[in-house]
Design brief:
The chain is an alpha/beta fold and 429 residues long. It is elongated, with a radius of gyration of 34 Å. It has helices at 3-22, 29-34, 36-51, 66-74, 118-129, 144-154, 172-185, 228-290, 296-315, 322-335, 337-357, 362-389, 398-409, 412-428; strands at residues 54-60, 92-95, 104-108, 133-138, 160-164, 195-197, 205-210, 216-221.
């Protein structure tokens, strides 16, 4: 397959996945609302892919000449230029008019070392996350802060270019020496050919002129920007691999967002599931405690466990039939054989006491019996959750290991104490 066709195919696949993420009906509205800014980014990335744009973020220290470099590349005053800290206060984007066919878009960002500018620096790194290429502007040898910033930017996995700005202030030898030092300092982060000298806003030069009478007159002449090498490099990258970079970066961002959505959805489901389990704990504990008919309370408890598992299946979007839920409860109970034996043994004794005493012993035995039923319900509920979260599977180590881990992770004393207190409150009422 030709390179261009393969690139277009990858871009189309990424665009389709972005649309699928935006239109996914299974994402709860609460999650969409909480992640609204991220979904807007996805929409922006989709638009970018459809317009074949390559977004370039420009970074650097305050007054290194970031905004001036952007203007020089654009050939117009698109970004605010100043010498005071804080001139650039928010990200601003402008299309590179002369490269309209290449779809190159420049993004100017706040200075990385502005005093009290942590929020602006955070914004700069957020822009890097949704950009395809980064141009780091320096006006001399790199400071420690600049090296740290470059290493941080490298972790975004975006291609890096370094622009040595203000080279008009140096002699040819000084310029070449600075370029070599920059290439050495960035050897593991930036390709040698991507460390480029520029003069975004050259200082004016003095010109001596003779007037009509032969007198010398000193005047100042503004020199044009020298950004040809950098501009050519950007356009070459855009033409050769712009679509690929956009598709890869959009896909990576969408992948991270999908993971975050999954975590939020899982957290929401866990919260709902915890509520379901607690409801059944209370219902089962109270029902078992107050049922005066021997053994009937045990049958009632088993039915409630199965009903709880059916409800949990709905919470996790993996519905279970009544038969499936019964089999799942049986599987869990087998793995809890020793524990369940103690629980049901206690309940059999309590049921017998109920029958022999005609219900007189209910208050004495109800709290203990109900608390054990509560604890068993928590174990069965958590084990069923594990099974559902794994997609109706016990996972690599099987049911025995999963249930053992759940039992080990629960504080039995705390659960029994909570259960007894709740049951006694209800009995008193």
């Amino acid at each position: 397959m030709p390179r261009a066709a393969a690139t277009d195919e990858r871009g189309g696949a990424v665009a389709a996945s972005l649309r699928g993420l935006l239109d996914d009906p299974s994402i709860p509205s609460g999650v969409r609302d909480a992640m609204a800014a991220d979904f807007r980014r996805i929409e922006s990335m989709l638009d970018r892919l459809e317009r074949d744009e390559l977004h370039v973020a420009v970074f650097g220290r305050v007054s290194a000449g970031k905004s001036a470099l952007g203007n020089a590349l654009l050939g117009r005053e698109a970004f605010t230029v100043g010498v005071l800290h804080g001139t650039t206060t928010e990200a601003d984007a402008a299309r590179l008019d002369e490269a309209a066919n290449a779809g190159l878009v420049l993004i100017d960002t706040p200075g990385i070392n502005e005093l009290g500018g942590e929020a602006r620096e955070k914004l700069a790194f957020e822009v890097a996350e949704v950009s395809d290429l980064i141009v780091f502007v320096a006006d001399g040898d790199l400071t420690r802060d600049e090296r740290d910033a470059l290493r941080t930017l490298a972790t975004t996995r975006r291609p890096l270019l370094v622009a040595l700005n203000k080279v008009d202030r140096y002699s040819d030898d000084e310029r070449d020496g600075l370029l070599e030092r920059l290439r050495q300092h960035t050897a593991t982060l930036v390709r040698r050919e991507d460390v480029i000298a520029v003069a975004a806003q050259p200082s004016s030069r003095s010109v001596v002129e003779l007037d009509a009478s032969g007198h010398e007159r000193l005047s100042s002449e503004r020199r044009p920007p020298d950004v040809t090498a950098l501009k050519s490099r950007l356009l070459a990258i855009a033409e050769r691999e712009g679509k690929t970079l956009s598709a890869i970066n959009a896909g990576l961002f969408a992948g991270r967002l999908t993971d975050q959505i999954s975590e939020r959805v899982a957290a929401t489901r866990r919260e709902v599931a915890s509520g379901v389990i607690r409801q059944y704990c209370v219902a089962k504990a109270v029902a078992v405690a107050l049922n005066p008919v021997p053994v009937a309370d045990l049958l009632l408890a088993g039915g409630l466990d199965a009903a709880m598992v059916v409800q949990l299946g709905r919470v996790y979007g993996l519905p279970l039939t009544r038969s499936e839920s019964g089999k799942l409860v049986a599987t869990i109970s087998v793995q809890l054989a020793a524990l369940m034996g103690a629980v049901w043994g206690m309940q059999l004794v309590a049921s017998a006491l109920k029958g022999l005493s005609g219900g007189v012993s209910v208050v004495v035995t109800a709290a203990a019996q109900g608390a054990l039923g509560w604890y068993a319900t928590v174990l069965i509920g958590r084990a069923a959750e594990h099974y559902l979260i794994a997609g109706k599977s016990w996972g690599e180590h099987g049911a025995k290991r999963a249930v053992a881990d759940i039992v080990a992770g629960l504080d039995r004393d705390s659960i029994l104490r909570e259960a007894r207190e709740e049951i006694l409150r209800r009995l008193h009422r």
